[in-house]
Structures are given as structure tokens and as C-alpha cells.
């Protein structure tokens, strides 16, 4: 009996030990999970592990301090445009599933966690349309692009990552709601430019609610919206001018309709460039809207792009209204910025788009098209013909994929910084040429994303209050770390 009891006790201890190890799949308590990408791709975003060992006499140190806390992170991702969905649906199902798992699976992939879609068409859609092109909201309906491309792709992504956040942005209102200006109020039957007729503020707000409901009925929850993509850009292939005074007044109707419908969808103002397209009367756009108590009540924060101006504007807006959030919702690579020069773009984009936005209070970071084809499309006349995707797929076979800098930027962040993480304080010593951000995930794991801009390898000791380890960072590289 005594021998049998000993065997049972031994078995129980073994089960407890097994349960402890499985609590953190694939990563032991004394190991660090990391991803490395070098400028020459000799190290290429592979998941590796190292023992948490410390090398003596290392001058460069980075210490994470969980007691200093900044913004909570919503996630990282890219836009799932009509063009992106079209390209994905041309792939063989097994190839598409492989790519989507690599991109969105939070455990076996990089775990991209935030995506942006258009409300109606964008400049990367297969045609010009809204969901109500015939006058009267009774004619509202999802269109071919949503039904046959966007929704099928979103449903596949949600099977892989059910917690993914989705942001919707319109490029234009229905044309029957447009006028030439707010003085003459003449009908403006054009996809490009025009302004929203104030008499349709309530109808257009109801249009948003119908769109959110239509996606919900298809199993797709909309986490957030912006009232207008690039509201100061009249020249996009589908566009609507909406100055801050117009958006202030429209947000009151939009917020009221969303609240009346019982929806929890967040609203982010602006959704355009740091420099407000150099319009003097539009500087500080979201701050003017926040000054209106009623409009401000409905806004979670403001969203920005980086096609003009400097990211320091994020700090100014945060300092003025620290109670409001910030999102970075669009940036693109293309022929104009040597978008397929990986050695150049990896370093510049991680500094500007990845770490630059996060360190300036953005809780979410999204780049433009997730996938374009090898001819930079499909695109429409009037849209961007010079943009590359975060990845580009060979149009000849819809199989071969080239991963560009933006895919790496988002993947490095999303692989180790999970939704709900908090950016925390760091203290760096002898860290010239190193840019970084530190985080504490909601499961209490720690994360650090690091850019080495220099042409020299850097031996760095990284520590928090409980763990310390040394790692040799390759020259011109990005390294993401996560540890228990």
C-alpha cells in the first residue's frame, strides 16, 4: 500500500509539473522568445529562443520599468482593401490559409490584431460605389465587393483570430448626399470632392449604423470607425471634403445614432496627415472638435496618417488632450520612397511607423494595403498606381509572395506586443543608435522591440525587475523580445 501511494504521489507531481510547463507553450521560464530581421535578410523574422544568461562587463543596458505606464495597446495591422481581398481570393485556398495563418494566428503566426476596411469603396476598390447609391436609405445594401471579396476574407481571418479589431472608414458619402459647397448647396454628383449636405447629417449617421449592423449580421464586429478618410483631401478617386467644423457637427449626429442603436463602436476623429495638408484654418483639427462638449463626448480620440508633417504632432495633441486616444491608421510604401529597397525601408519604417508612433502615444498602428499584386494593383483610374502592398503577390500565379518592409514592421510589433499590453518606462545607458519601446503584456510577460540603426553589432543587457539577459544585436536590424 505504501509503495502504491508513493507511485500515486509521483504521478501527481509529474502531472503538476506538466501543467506548469504547458502554461506557457513553447517558452520556458528561463528562456527569451525573440525575432530578428537584418537589413540583408540573413536573419529573417524567425522565432528563436535563447537562455536568459547575463554577460559581464556590458556597457549598453536597457532596463524596463513596469511602474512607469503609458498607453494600453489595441494592436497592429494593415488595411484589408477591396484590392487586397481580390488578390487573396485568387489564391489557392491552401496557400491563402497558409498566409493568413502566418499573418493573423496569435499563437502560431505573427498575430496581426487590428485591420482597417473601407465603408463603401476606397481608392483600392474594384469599382466606385457606396452602399446606398440610389437616393433613400431604404435602398441600403452591401455590394458585390463586400459580399464576394471582403466578407469572405474577414470571415477566414476571424476563424484564425476571433479577437481581431476592425476599423471602418468611408472615402465618400453617397453622391446624392453631396453638395458643391456649404453656401450654394448645389447637388454635386461626383465621386471626387464635394461636401456633405447638412440636411443629410442624420441620414448619413443612420447609414453608418446600417453598415455596422450589416457586418454584424455577417458575423463581423466593427470595433471602431472614423467619420471620413482624409477629410482635407479633395483629389482622391473617391473623396469628400469635411473641415473640422463640419466634422464637429456631423459627429454629434453620428454619435447620437450609434448610442441610440445600442452599439459600442468607437469613433476616432480626423484620419489624415500630421500637417493638416498645410491648411491654416485646419491646424489642430481634432482639438477644435474636442472643444465642443457634446461632440467630444462621442469621440474616443483621433487618427493620423504620415503623408505630410512630422510625428511630433502626436505628442502635441496628446499633451493638449491626454484623456483622448490616438491611432495611426495609414501609411504606404511606393515608387516615390523606394518602397522595395528593403535595406532602406526596414530601418526608416521601423523608426517612423513602428516605434515612432507607439512612442508618441498611439495605441494602434496600421499600414495601408496588406496585399497588392506584382503590378501594384488592382487599382482604379484616379487612385494610386505607384503603391506597393505590405506584401506583393505575383500576378502570374497568385502564389509567390514578396514581403516588404511594412509587413516586417507590423509583424515585429504584433509578435511580442499583444492586445491589452501597456507601454512601460525604459532607461537606456550607452545606447546610441538604438531605438526601442518596452511593454508589459496582460499575461504579465514582458516585451521589447528594438531597432539598431548603426552599422555595428551591439552587445546589450536587457532587464526588468525579475529577469536579466544579454544579447548581441546584429548591425542594421530589428529585434523583438518576449519573456516571462
- The strand count comes to 24
The residue fraction in helices comes out at 25-40%
Per CATH, which architecture of the largest domain?
Alpha-Beta Barrel
Q: Termini, distance in Å?
A: 41 Å
Alpha-beta classification: alpha/beta
> And the CATH topology of the largest domain?
TIM Barrel
Identify the CATH homologous superfamily of the largest domain: Glycosidases
Give start-end ranges of low-pLDDT stretches: 1-25
Helices, by number, come to 11
Main sheet properties? 9 strands, mixed
Radius of gyration: 24 Å
Domain Glycosyl hydrolase family 30 TIM-barrel: 74-414
Family: Belongs to the glycosyl hydrolase 30 family.
Domain Glycosyl hydrolase family 30 beta sandwich: 420-481
GO molecular function: glucosylceramidase activity
Give the helices and strands, then pairings.
Layout (H helix, E strand, L loop, with lengths): L1 H21 L8 E8 L5 E8 L8 E13 L2 E5 L2 H9 L2 H12 L9 E6 L24 H17 L4 E6 L7 E2 L15 E2 L4 H17 L6 E2 L18 H17 L5 E8 L11 H6 L2 H5 L3 E5 L6 H9 L4 E6 L2 E2 L7 H17 L3 E8 L1 E3 L13 E2 L2 E3 L7 E3 L1 H12 L5 E8 L4 E7 L5 E7 L5 E6 L4 E6 L3 E7 L1
Parallel strand pairs: 3-22, 4-14, 5-6, 6-9, 9-10, 10-11, 11-12, 12-14, 15-17
Antiparallel strand pairs: 1-2, 1-24, 3-19, 7-8, 13-16, 17-18, 19-20, 20-21, 21-24, 22-23
Amino acid at each position: 500500500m505504501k509503495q502504491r501511494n508513493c507511485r500515486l504521489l509521483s504521478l501527481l507531481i509529474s502531472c503538476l509539473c506538466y501543467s506548469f510547463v504547458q502554461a506557457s507553450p513553447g517558452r520556458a521560464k528561463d528562456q527569451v522568445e525573440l525575432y530578428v530581421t537584418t537589413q540583408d535578410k540573413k536573419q529573417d523574422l524567425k522565432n528563436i529562443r535563447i537562455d536568459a544568461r547575463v554577460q559581464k562587463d556590458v556597457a549598453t543596458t536597457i532596463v524596463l520599468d513596469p511602474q512607469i505606464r503609458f498607453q494600453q495597446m489595441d494592436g497592429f495591422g494593415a488595411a484589408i482593401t477591396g484590392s487586397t481581398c481580390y488578390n487573396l481570393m485568387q489564391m489557392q485556398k491552401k496557400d491563402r490559409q497558409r498566409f493568413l495563418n502566418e499573418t493573423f494566428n496569435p499563437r502560431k503566426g505573427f498575430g496581426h490584431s487590428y485591420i482597417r476596411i473601407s465603408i463603401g469603396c476606397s481608392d483600392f476598390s474594384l469599382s466606385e460605389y457606396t452602399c446606398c447609391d440610389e437616393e433613400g436609405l431604404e435602398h441600403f445594401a452591401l455590394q458585390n465587393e463586400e459580399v464576394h471579396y471582403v466578407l469572405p476574407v474577414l470571415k477566414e481571418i476571424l476563424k484564425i483570430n476571433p479577437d481581431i479589431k476592425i476599423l471602418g472608414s468611408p472615402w465618400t458619402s453617397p453622391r446624392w448626399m453631396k453638395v458643391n459647397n456649404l453656401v450654394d448647396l448645389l447637388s454635386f454628383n461626383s465621386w471626387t470632392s464635394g461636401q456633405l449636405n447638412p440636411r443629410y447629417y442624420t441620414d448619413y449617421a443612420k447609414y453608418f449604423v446600417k453598415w455596422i449592423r450589416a457586418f454584424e449580421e455577417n458575423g463581423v464586429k466593427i470595433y471602431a470607425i472614423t467619420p471620413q478618410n482624409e477629410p482635407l483631401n479633395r483629389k482622391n478617386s473617391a473623396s469628400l471634403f469635411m473641415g473640422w467644423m463640419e466634422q464637429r457637427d456631423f459627429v454629434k449626429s453620428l454619435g447620437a445614432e450609434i448610442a441610440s442603436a445600442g452599439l459600442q463602436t468607437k469613433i476616432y476623429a480626423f484620419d489624415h496627415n500630421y500637417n493638416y495638408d498645410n491648411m491654416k484654418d485646419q491646424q489642430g483639427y481634432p482639438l477644435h472638435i474636442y472643444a465642443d462638449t457634446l461632440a467630444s463626448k462621442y469621440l474616443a480620440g483621433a487618427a493620423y496618417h504620415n503623408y505630410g508633417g512630422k510625428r511630433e504632432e502626436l505628442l502635441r495633441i496628446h499633451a493638449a488632450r491626454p484623456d483622448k486616444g490616438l491611432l495611426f491608421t495609414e501609411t504606404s510604401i511606393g515608387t516615390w520612397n523606394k518602397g522595395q529597397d528593403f535595406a532602406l525601408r526596414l530601418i526608416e519604417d521601423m523608426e517612423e511607423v513602428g516605434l515612432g508612433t507607439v512612442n508618441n502615444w498611439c495605441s494602434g498602428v496600421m499600414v495601408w494595403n496588406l496585399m497588392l499584386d506584382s503590378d501594384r494593383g488592382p487599382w482604379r483610374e484616379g487612385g494610386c498606381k505607384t503603391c506597393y502592398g505590405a506584401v506583393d503577390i505575383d500576378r502570374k500565379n497568385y502564389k509567390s509572395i514578396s514581403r516588404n518592409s511594412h509587413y516586417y514592421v507590423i509583424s515585429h510589433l504584433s509578435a511580442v506586443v499583444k492586445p491589452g499590453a501597456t507601454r512601460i518606462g525604459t532607461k537606456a545607458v550607452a545606447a546610441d543608435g538604438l531605438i526601442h519601446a518596452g511593454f508589459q503584456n496582460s499575461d504579465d510577460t514582458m516585451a521589447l522591440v528594438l531597432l539598431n540603426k548603426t552599422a555595428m553589432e551591439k552587445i546589450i543587457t536587457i532587464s526588468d525587475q525579475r529577469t536579466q539577459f544579454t544579447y548581441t544585436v546584429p548591425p542594421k536590424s530589428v529585434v523583438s523580445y518576449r519573456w516571462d
